[in-house]
Amino acid sequence: MEKKRILYVSQEIHPYLPESDISKTALALPKKMNELGHEVRVFMPRFGLINERRHQLHEVIRLSGINIIVNDMDQPLIIKVASVPQARMQVYFIDNEEYFRRKATFLDEDHELFEDNDERTLFFGKGVIETVKKLGWKPDIIHIHGWMTCCLPLYIKEFEQNEPLFKDTKIVFSSYNNSFEGEFGSNIYEGLEFDGIEDEEVLDLYNEPTAKNLNKAAIKYSDALVTGSEDVDEELVEFAKSLDIPVFDGANLSEKPKEAVEFYKEVTEEAPVA
């Protein structure tokens, strides 16, 4: 495969968060692609339990200062960066005082979903897109990991189709067995309506924002689905196939990340899809 620019976006990356299927894969893949000579950029949320001093995060002033609108409210975007130990690459962190400073990821001390996870998801997706635009960096492939990245394909396909940086970009979505109980609040649906999303099918999914429906919403606007865990919900696989979206088995990519080269070739149409 010729050298590509690959943007990785994940809700978890090791060593900044504990090891899991998603956090291990979201580290191993960009690390291997970087070693193979591809140009990579990596993004994740700056959750408050990430130790900034230990991981040597620092703010990137030239990228910070943008305001992201979520449900008609301006929220300041802060961008931080850290170097991954022994990997010769950096991770960009999407930060905001309101959404990401609490010492937890998605659940409160009673193990209930934070009420604003819906707004945090919208902010994260928009923040990544605006930062990539400010970097002036054109990705050939965007590989997103986990349900928190669900809005990113939608925003790119609906609002950035005339943006030269995203012209011909292929989006790969990796789904994992990391669902949550219950539903998000209604702000994710209202936020998408406020932004002008008119696709009734995808709005119906966000009107009942379960983990399964967030995954389906991401799949609908992606060019390929990767099953990142061995026990990914089969309904998601069938949903992708019903849309003629190719599905790749990626359950062991954290151990064999070089295998990703083959499905990247297929997604970018350098080789025929089987």
Write structural notes for this entry.
The strands form two sheets. The chain has a nine-stranded mixed sheet, with helices on both faces. It has a two-stranded antiparallel sheet with strand order 4-5. Helix 4 crosses helix 5, helix 4 packs parallel to helix 6 and helix 5 runs parallel beside helix 8. It is built from ten helices and eleven strands. The chain has one domain: Glycogen Phosphorylase B (Rossmann fold), CATH 3.40.50.2000. The model has no long low-confidence stretch (mean pLDDT 91). Helix content is 35%, strand content 19%. Strand 8, helix 5 and strand 9 form a beta-alpha-beta unit. By secondary structure, it is of the alpha/beta class. The protein is globular.
Mean pLDDT: 91
Whole-number tally of structural domains: 1
CATH architecture assignment: 3-Layer(aba) Sandwich
> How is the biggest beta sheet arranged?
9 strands, mixed
Q: Which regions have little confidence, pLDDT < 50, spanning 5+ residues?
A: none
Give the gist of this structure.
The protein has 274 residues and is an alpha/beta fold. The chain has helices at 21-35, 52-55, 97-100, 117-135, 151-159, 187-195, 200-207, 211-220, 234-242, 260-267; strands at 5-10, 39-45, 58-59, 67-70, 73-76, 78-83, 90-95, 141-145, 170-175, 224-227, 247-249. Helix 4 crosses helix 5 (151-159).
